[in-house]
Amino acid sequence: MKKLLLFLLCLSLSIVGIVVYTAPRTTSAPYDGQLVEKKSAISIPKHKKTLEERALFTEERALYEFNMQVNPLTGEIPLVEKQKEFNQTKKAKLKSSNNARAIQTTYVNRGPTNYGGRTRSLVVDRSDVTGNTMIAGGVSSGVFRTTNGGTSWTKVSSNDEIHNVTTIVQDPRSGFESTWYYGTGEGVGNSASLSGSLYYGQGIWKSTDGGLTWAQMPSTASDQTIDDSDFDHIYKLEVQPTTGYLFAAVAGKLKRFDGVNWTDQISNNSTSRNRHTDIVITTGGRVYAGFSGTNIAPIEGVWTSADGISGWSRINTSSFTPSGRVVLALAPSNQNKLYVLFANGIASSCSTTPGIEADLWMWNQSNSTFTNYSGKLPDESGCSDGNDPFAIQGGYDLVVNVKPDNENFVVIGGTNAYKMADITGVGTFVRIGGYANPNGYAKYTNHHPDIHALVFNPFNTNVLFTGSDGGVHKTTNINASTVSWTNLNNNFQTYQYYHVGIDPFPGSDIVIGGAQDNGTSVGGVNFGMPDLTTHFDYAGGDGVSVAISRDDACVPFFIGFQNGPIYRDCPSPVTEITPNDQSLVPPEPYDSQFVTLYHLDPDNNNILYYAAQNRLLRTNDATTVTPNTWTDLGTTTLLGHSDWFQTFSTSWGTYNPATSYLLMGGNNGHIYRLNDPKNAASIASANNITPPGATIANPSIVTGLAIHPTNNNIVLATYSNYGTQSIFLTTNATAASPTWTLVERNLFAHSIRSAAIVENAGETTYMVGTARGLYSSTDPINVDWVREAPTQIGMAVVSSLKYRPSDHKLLIGTHGNGMYEATINSTLGLSDNSFSKSIKLYPNPAQAYLNVKLARANGSKVSYEVYNLLGQTMSSGVLENDRLNTSRLTSGMYLLKLKTSDGAEGIKSFIKK
Q1: Signal sequence: where (predicted)?
Q2: pTM to 2 decimals?
Q3: 8 Å CB contact between 683 and 675
């Protein structure tokens, strides 16, 4: 029996984890994925990152997003254009299912629903004494609510907005527990450090029904597209339990809302966004505020007021002066005790000056004294940059909390999570999460580095929840000598993908994606996952380009890491194949961009292209290539330019030297066509086919080059930068100088991030992914773009589109909402074959039963599976008497997959009343 062999591996910043597996040989038959067998872990050690490398990576994450948006002619992100983009999105028509001219598309969620992304806030609902109701927020994903302790989450913020959630608070007053608030706007962090970030806020949102529905507070109506308000970057919200006043710790200010007006309680007029603030409030109403030591003098440090209105005083003047971010935590069992954790200005480097990057002090209000506990902070045996000693990435991840029933039991978070059961005793903090140990970067079991929230369950103080760059996790015994964790990312869909890829084999449901700070994930029932949305954590670090090959029976996967490394997982053991610069002695790997770019020809999987910044490398034997066997085709300087490559695309079909070509898009706006790329000796023979209306400047990012699946003359080209012309179409792409038409129409203000051209039954649809959702047009020269999947993809950034023409499958990667799969004029990946067309379902909508009428050979048994639109299997079995019991299904739309014992397969949708 054919099998997939899965070799589990875990990679983080220094140890690369790869999965190695074998799969059935490519044949013309539909894919019949079988069992998965997990093997022992394999580790590939990488060099430890220096302090400079870590700082560079943080900067490059931000610069990557900034360059996607900035107007290349002004050097600024045009706020007017971003406002127009938002307005255009609101006004855009939604895809209509009764439009007979448009190809109809079915969307299903492809997850991951078992992994999470960056999560800065989580609150346990004090009105549910079971502790099972919680609300959490993703920085680029919205607000999620659970009533079963994280067994499942439901998104409760609208998909028609981008909710960049940073803080959540519940009104603590008796009788007001149904009132909640969340704040938006991440000021500093991954993807959020430069002007024009996607993560500006939209003010403060309020719920009065326990977090089920939310509305923006009019007095905080910050515009997410413009950094012009105190409510664009909200670090912390608190409700005063004695008055009900809402306090907002915004950048460099503490603001108070009395139900009518906002008042600045403490303020600094610096324009720097790096002005971290924090706030905690005692049950008696005393307010403490913490202000960063970065660009915020003269108010840096910790302040207090008995009522939060008057009598403010700074309490740290004779004890310490923070050099960066300050975070606070009260001891619930003794609220005279305030713990203060802050950046101390040390930038630790194992190669030069290893040191703890924060200090910890405790203020006792009863005697107005500070105790210095900085000597308790962890510096374990060994050293690894960004891991040990205690590291906080400049304050990006920094949090402290206290066990509710023990004023001396303290937990802290930086890149790792730590605890100390008695801070007054001997010893230091011990590691409980993040990285597994101080000497490397393998992840702690069932946990994730970069800690942003540490929350005790008030009804069971042995339970601790964490919010991190990996979502939400829980331990049921914080007292254990070795703390174990449970992953609570169950439909907490918050992944941020840069690139996604789909198995080129028709019928296969295997997908792969490279995500920000969450490496590479793989999903698919054919890969051994239990459903379409569960993924496997394939590799760590920052995900980049991805590809799946059918060039070999083992089905090689190609994955990469920041700034150049690329690996192949079979047929030999996991192998680095990063091209080497042969001009060096000895040869050394080329660098690529931060988000490493390569492209596997989807119809000719032996051909792989690699971007070494502005240099093009090629192999015609991707399955066995080594670092020293690539062909160097030269740089764009041979074409008179200096573009670094940003996207590749290859013409469809079996390779033909006379008709096949490679398209290359750069960061200076140029587009090149290389004919017969498999045999080309140099990039110098490429044609510059840049649209005349494109902006030629740096940066002007080409983000999409979509080639029609049956007509190589039709190409859709897209650009991401605001203030430039962004969508072009040509119908003579193979000409020496193609004629381009500007087709942005009603998306003229949008940042376009990806492109695809899909076709079914002779009808073509053009698709573009934008910074605010997915759009389509059947004729973009004459017909406006309409928004696709508004209740699923919503306004998420659509960063990557990958199409498989053989069965009309389109994979959509988003930055914050995971990935989705569209089937063009079909459902769930089955083509509209004669068997599918023969299936008749009635009554539809159904109530207790659904009758099934279909053509089949006499005596052939029919098995069935019922899926919801998340891709989850709701029921399965053998059809009896041509009838299906639907009484246990809840109301909604479902997909019914049928398969006869003689091999026919088909799918139909139905509705349950």
Answers
A1: 1-22
A2: 0.81
A3: no
**Residue 806: its pLDDT value, please?**
92
pLDDT the model gives residue 162: 62
78, 184, 201 from 229: Cα distances, Å: 16, 12, 9
Low-confidence ranges of the chain (pLDDT < 70): 1-59, 62, 95-104, 161-162, 188-200, 222-228, 269-274, 294-297, 825-834, 856-859, 869-872
Q: By C-alpha distance, which of 498, 494, 502, 499 is closest to 811?
A: 502
Nearest to 835 by CA among 909, 886, 908, 885: 908
Residue 31: CB atoms within 10 A of its CB come to 20
pLDDT digits (tens, 9 = 90+) for 629-655: 999 999 999 999 999 999 999 999 999
Write the burial class of residue 97 (CB in 10 Å: 0-12 exposed, 13-18 middle, 19+ buried).
exposed
The span from the CA of 241 to the CA of 307, in Å, is 11
- pLDDT given for residue 596 in this prediction: 96
Contacts 24+ apart (CB under 8 A), 307-315: 307/242, 307/243, 308/240, 308/245, 308/247, 308/256, 308/265, 308/281, 309/256, 309/265, 312/265, 312/266, 315/363, 315/368, 315/370
For residues 792 and 869, what is the distance between their CA atoms, to the nearest angstrom? Answer: 10
Q: Which residue type is seen at 593?
A: Q
**Short-list 536, 557, 559, 537, CA closest to 548:** 557
pLDDT at 40: 26
Contact (CB, 8 A) for 894 and 868: yes
Q: The tokens of 291 are what?
A: 């202000």
Cβ neighbours of residue 138 under 8 Å, at least 6 residues apart?
116, 117, 118, 119, 144, 165, 471, 492, 494, 816
Can you tell me the distance from the alpha carbon of 10 to that of 20, in angstroms, rounded to the nearest whole number?
A: 12
**What pLDDT score was predicted for residue 541?**
78
CB 7 within 8 A of CB 42: yes
Token pair 């194949």 is found at: 577
For residue 364, give the nearest of 398, 330, 341 by alpha carbon. Answer: 330
Cα(812)–Cα(830) distance, rounded to whole angstroms? 18
Q: Which pLDDT score is estimated for 909?
A: 77
Is residue 389 within 8 Å of 356, Cβ to Cβ?
yes
d(CA 634, CA 647): 17
